[in-house]
Amino acid sequence: MFxxxxxxxxxxxxxxxxxxxxxxxxxxxxxxxxxxxxxxxGDGQTNATECTNGTDPTDECSNTYTSAQICAYVxxxxxxPLAFSRL
Length: 87
Ligand SMILES: [Ca+2]
Ligand SMILES: [Ca+2]
Description:
The protein is mainly α.
């Protein structure tokens, strides 16, 4: 039987709550691991990975891809911001 008390709600941290990559990295460092699993700029690298690598999690053009990786990634992810960056 359905019980409202048993409904699980997953709260996804909103990327829009942060305006800079530094704010995102600071929040992850402070313990917001869920935010670290997101990809706020849609470049295919998680926020946590970008903070570790020193790239900007709010800028899809700031990443650690090689040109060869981008050439492979974009055709496979045509809706990615990286694909639109080519225009
Ligand atoms: Ca990213
Ligand atoms: Ca990025």
